[in-house]
Each structure stands twice: as structure tokens, then as C-alpha cells.
Amino acid sequence: MKTITSRDNVQYKELVKLAGSQSARRKAGRTLLDGVHLCQSFLQLRGMPEQCVVSESALHNPEVMDIVGQLEAQRAHVLALPDALYNGISQVEHGVGVMFSIATPEREVTAPVSVSAVLLDGVQDPGNVGSILRSAAAAGVTQVYCSAGTAFCWSPKVLRAAMGAHFVLDIFENVDLADLVRNAKVQTLATSGYATQRLYDVDLRTPTAWLFGHEGQGVADDLLSMATHQVVIPHLGQVESLNVAACAAVCFFEQVRQNLT
Amino acid sequence: MKTITSRDNVQYKELVKLAGSQSARRKAGRTLLDGVHLCQSFLQLRGMPEQCVVSESALHNPEVMDIVGQLEAQRAHVLALPDALYNGISQVEHGVGVMFSIATPEREVTAPVSVSAVLLDGVQDPGNVGSILRSAAAAGVTQVYCSAGTAFCWSPKVLRAAMGAHFVLDIFENVDLADLVRNAKVQTLATSGYATQRLYDVDLRTPTAWLFGHEGQGVADDLLSMATHQVVIPHLGQVESLNVAACAAVCFFEQVRQNLT
């Protein structure tokens, strides 16, 4: 384990940049997994990180000691920082001071969609994207395709909201969704307040690609018209719309229900 | 319409306090509805606000002109601010500059729960609380009871996330949930990862009180043990938990589905 105590250290300055700037993360092709839960999930599902950073006070935490022990047994890089320096790169308040620095997984689309998947067309809020990833992973939907206008999946906010779901998903970003929908080997479903077919009346026991859109405008019209089914989630109240992450959860778990019953 | 141009104006300073401080809002018993959609919803569902505040540039927006016209016809207070001053009290980026100042609706629990309701036990994230309110309103669940540890429902962040759902709901805060569950006239359902009964196997065609808990710890054990049913949302993926707002959406719309089929 190496300890850094100066804010002027080159490695520390690099971490500050990664923590604070989306463009720095994109440029470096790296991101930070902040907090015990994300680090444990990564270790369990994806293996060793390039680097682990711990705060000095966290070195007494049993969960952190366990993580650091596993890493040092594999001779991975562990960097200890005084709490003041650690807090300069962490966005988690009152958290336990441990984070991994990892290379951002980048995937190219090489084949048409042939299993259940979620397609995000300009979903902007990182909390929504994270929640959708988490729900998808829980429902057994394993592929995620994002348009260029969707929040960057490997940003710290999306990672926190998804609670480790990233590590069981195949995530593709900057995808041409029209092309993907056109060539899909599975049915594609888009929700729309104007649809007449009810979600509950579609057979979801086959693999399904779910298409969700921008928080305000929904799925773009051209994509909507290409979907196999446009469906509506029936409402019983005076309010006629749902948050996109809530909508996605209802869809994914209707598929789970149909598959289990 | 009155125009204020000085930051030292007493009325403006009052608005700055309301915009920036939860304790100021609680002390004054007032809150701000920021943005066209919230203002339109309030006007339509609850009537006149005590005060409307508009930015000078928004006075040319047709939707804002319509709102201001309705208010002035009723001799309601409209306050115009130069954009620089307006931006000092607005938390909506790139929004259209209109907000209402309203008295925070406060309700006392006077009767046991006898219709479908949602009970929030320490749900902390304002975005989650807002999303749950929005889903409840869409599913026809009309009553919301919050424990003391739950995010304040009338904060700007919760209001924004709920997109006007507040105005079709009866919201009770600082409620003793144990007392409420004990005396409920309807079945109470709590979700728990440890439950064995599946959500889909409970008859939801009768009014139901839904109990959701803290993002990390879930529903407190004493409350959980008092619920009529503890249910699990079955998972098909490797991730075994859902965001609380996603979980609530799945529950509410399973109730909708059962009521419609």
C-alpha cells in the first residue's frame, strides 16, 4: 500500500480530475466506483480493479479491510489518502472511504438484439438511468443500449443509483437505436400515453426489447413507429404519466410476472 | 402586477429565504411551486395561489401570460422580477420563469386508513418520494402518510419529481405509522426481500395500504411485523433489490392490473 499526503502529487491530481469532470473521465476512459457496495460488487462480478483508493479512517473498517486484503493478495495497487484528501475526490457523504478506479467498459454493437434488452432514447437524468439499470438487472434483462443523448452510464451518479447492476449487464453507448430496432430479432415494445394496446395484453413470455425515452418528450416518433407494439400502462388516477424509471420497472416486472405464472 | 427591482426589497428577501432553506419554509408554513407545469396543475386542481412570481422574460411566454391573466382576473398578487433576481430564487435550470408561493397544506390524521394508501417509513431521497407520489396518483392511490424521518413532501425537489401529483393527493406528514397500521381498516402490505409470499399471489382488488421503507434498511422491523402481508417481488436476475420508487411502482400497478382484469 502506498500513501499520498500531498495535494500536489500527480496521481492525486489525476484522481481529482476523474472525480470532478465528465470530460476527463471520457478522455481517460476511466471511472471511479465510490463506496463499499460498488467495490464489493465489482470485485465479486468483474474481478480486480486497476487501483483502489482508501481513506485512512476507512482502513479500520472491517469491510474495507477485507477488500484491501483481497487486493493486496493479488498485488493490486492500493493507495491510502488522509481523510481530507480522500474527501476531495469522493461524492458520497458520510460514506465509508473506499473507491476503485477502473477502465470504463466499452462495447461495440456487433450483432442484432436477440435477448431481452432495454433501449434508452435520450433519458437524461442519471438517477433515472441508474434506477432503470438496477430494475433491468433484477428482472433478468441483461442488455442495455443507449442513444448518444442518454446520460453516460459510467458516471458516478448513474453508478450509485444502479447499485452494482452495471456489473451484470452488457452496456452499449452511443448506439444508433433506429438501426437496432430495425434489425432486432425480438419484439420491440415502446410505451406511449397515446397507445391503445394495454401492456397487460401483450404476450411478454418471449424475449422483448423495451424502448424508453426522454423524461419530457418520450420516445422519438420515428423510433416509436418502428416498434412492434406501442403499449400504454393503464392509469386509474387523475395523473396520467409516470416517471420513466417507474414506467420501466412496471414493464420489466410485468414480464417477470408473465414468465412466472 | 407589481415589479421589484432591488435585492434589498423585504418581499424579495423573504422569497430568497423560502427558496433556499427548508427551515425557513417550515417556519413560514409556505413553499414555492417552481415552473409552468406545477403552477398550471395547482391552478387547475387547487385554485388561486397566495402569490405568483414571474421573471420579466417569461412575461412574453404564452403559457405564463395565460396564468398571469387568470390570476389578475381574480385580483391575485403577481410579482414581476428582472431575470437576474428571478434566477436567485429559482432552482429550475433553463426553465420558464414562473412560480407560485403557497401555504403548505397540513393535515391531521383524524380517522383510520379506509382506502388505498401509501405509508412511507423513512424514505429519504426527495426524488424517490416525488416519484412514489407521482406513481400513487397515477394508480389511483389517493392518501399518503409519512413518518417523521421521511423527506418533507412539500420541498421543491419532491414537488418537482412528483409533477403535480401533490394536488390530487391527501398528504399527511409526521405520522405515527405504527398506530396507523394497527388501526387500519384495510389490508397493509409491506415488501421485504425475506418474505415468501409473492406480490402476485395476494388479492389486491380490495383497498390496500402499501408500506415502503428507508432506501438502505427498508421498513422497520416492528412495522413489518404488523403488516397483514409481507410480500416479495420475485426477481429473475442476479441483482436482488429494487430502488424503493421502482418497487412502489411495481406494487401500485400490480394493483391496477388486478383491478382491471
Automatic annotation (TrEMBL), chains A, B:
Q: Specify whether Methyltransferase is a keyword of the entry.
A: yes
**What Gene Ontology molecular-function terms does this entry list?**
methyltransferase activity
Instruction: List the keywords (alphabetical).
Output: Methyltransferase, Transferase
Highest taxon of source: Bacteria
BP GO annotations: methylation
Q: Which residues form the tRNA/rRNA methyltransferase SpoU type domain?
A: 118-252
Q: Identify the Gene3D superfamilies for this entry.
A: 3.30.1330.30, 3.40.1280.10
Q: Does the keyword Magnesium apply?
A: no
What are the boundaries of the signal sequence?
A: none
Read off the InterPro entries from this record.
Alpha/beta_knot_MTases, Ribosomal_eL30-like_sf, rRNA_Methyltransferase, SpoU_MeTrfase, tRNA_m1G_MTases_N
The identity of this protein, by name, is RNA methyltransferase
Q: Which organism is it from?
A: Duganella margarita
